[in-house]
């Protein structure tokens, strides 16, 4: 089978096709024929070498990708088919990628606990781009355990993770305050944000002025770190999605969160799929690239300012 991976770290140009043995599902696994794979910032981190410590001692090619949409090709022994995991089913899956095991692959053997039926009516391209970001947002909110009515500040609120934080927080009756570009006001209000504070200099001071006081917690999807910490109340919480060794003091709990912790969390995946079906969370429009055009897809990812979700598509008929 074909995978898109890298044998050296660098810019988008290092991504290229490789041939790997066809996988087979083990016990409690399903074999997924991948139609589309989501492209995420963590994929660029792998490509550039920022995650090299995870890959030390492993043999290339290294294959990026944390999420897929496709069809089940084969069901391994012991899989409970009551979950809808049968041959031919349209599914989405979370991929805890490492080494040559990653979403940029024509076929993947995945734990049945990491695969759920795709949202009804969603194309593979659209379905491939929501699971990782929505699960990241779910992981943040589960760590915070905020009561209804609490104030949740979301930085980078118009981005993929930020948008799901806004929607999921709103669904849990939190007072969601969004930090984003002023041009995204209409989008964020449509997602449920109660208040928008335009991003820019002195953001913490402007949040405090807008709210008349600090937030209970900040989900820092924009990686503002020490710049946003003053907007959190004493004893509040900050959710960190990438490395930060700062200490804001004042009894604030800094939660270092990694979505890989939720690999195999079937209940969370099913809940997110159901929320995508009933409209509680929104599938972003897809920006598809053919798998062989992965360097172009990563070039666009590096440029930022995206409101669509980049996905790689696999044409199994060629």
Automatic annotation (TrEMBL):
| InterPro entries reported in the protein's UniProt record | ADH-like_N, ER, GroES-like_sf, NAD(P)-bd_dom_sf
Tell me the domain of life.
Bacteria
Give the Enoyl reductase (ER) domain ranges: 10-312
Report if keyword DNA-binding is assigned: no
Is the keyword 4Fe-4S in the record? no
Pfam families this protein is in?
A: ADH_N
Q: Which UniProt keywords apply?
A: NADP, Oxidoreductase
What is the name attached to this protein's record? Zinc-binding alcohol dehydrogenase family protein
Q: Which organism is it from?
A: Streptomyces iakyrus
């Amino acid at each position: 089978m074909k995978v898109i991976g890298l044998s050296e770290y660098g810019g988008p140009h290092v991504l290229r096709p490789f041939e790997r043995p066809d996988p087979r599902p083990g016990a409690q696994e399903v074999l997924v024929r991948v139609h589309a794979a989501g492209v995420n910032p963590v994929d660029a981190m792998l490509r550039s070498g920022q995650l090299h410590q995870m890959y030390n001692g492993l043999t290339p090619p290294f294959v990026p990708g944390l999420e897929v949409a496709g069809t089940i090709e084969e069901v391994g022994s012991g899989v409970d088919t009551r979950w809808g995991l049968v041959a031919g089913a349209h599914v989405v899956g979370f991929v805890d990628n490492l080494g040559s095991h990653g979403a940029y692959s024509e076929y993947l053997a995945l734990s049945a606990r990491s695969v759920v039926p795709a949202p009804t009516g969603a194309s593979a391209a659209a379905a491939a781009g929501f699971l990782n970001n929505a699960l990241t947002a779910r992981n943040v909110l589960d760590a915070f355990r905020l009561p209804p009515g609490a104030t949740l500040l979301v930085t980078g609120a118009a981005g993929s993770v930020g948008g799901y934080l806004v929607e999921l927080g709103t669904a849990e009756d939190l007072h969601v305050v969004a930090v984003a570009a002023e041009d995204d006001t209409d989008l964020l209000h449509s997602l449920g944000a109660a208040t928008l504070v335009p991003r820019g200099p002195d953001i913490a001071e402007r949040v405090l002025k807008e709210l008349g006081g600090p937030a209970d917690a900040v989900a820092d999807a924009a990686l503002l770190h020490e710049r946003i910490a003053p907007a959190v109340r004493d004893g509040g919480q900050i959710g960190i999605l990438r490395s930060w060794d700062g200490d804001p003091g004042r009894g604030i709990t800094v939660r270092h969160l990694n979505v890989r912790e939720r690999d195999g969390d079937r209940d969370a995946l099913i809940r997110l799929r159901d929320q995508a079906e009933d409209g509680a969370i929104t599938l972003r429009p897809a920006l598809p690239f053919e798998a062989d055009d992965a360097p172009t897809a990563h070039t666009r990812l590096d440029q930022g300012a995206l409101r669509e979700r980049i996905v790689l598509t696999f044409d199994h008929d060629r």
